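Homework help board

Subject: predicted structure for assignment chain

Our instructor gave us this sequence and asked us to write out the predicted structure in token form, then describe one feature. I got the tokens but I'm not sure how to describe them. Can anyone check?
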Amino acid sequence: MLERIHHTAIIASNYEESKKFYTEVLELEIIHELYREERDSYKLDLAIGDAQIELFSFPDPPKRPSTPEAQGLRHLCFEVEDIEKAVNWLENKGVEVEPIRVDPVTNKRFTFFKDPDQLPLELYER
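My token output:
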């Protein structure tokens, strides 16, 4: 029945800062942006391969633990062809990236970085 993940939703503490990160730093394409006056909220749809990221803003959203071991969604992962090239690309844009590690099960290389709200994001080499 389930075929693939369609989208992941993220609620930003600072919409403009997160919008800039996802569109200018990560260079994700904007599909659609909507301001919902009745909720004083933005919804920004971003393309990532065949999937989407929905970026939301809400007035005074409650904080949620986002460390990898906190209960709930652990992290969002982006697949890349060349992890060193992707790490250099991010670091050249001022993004701090952890050292590259190797998954002991798949022997694939991966690393983590964070968005403006400290949401853990992963790069995983194809």
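Reply (TA_rk): Your tokens look well-formed. For the description, you could write something like this. The longest strand covers residues 29-36. That's the kind of observation they're looking for.
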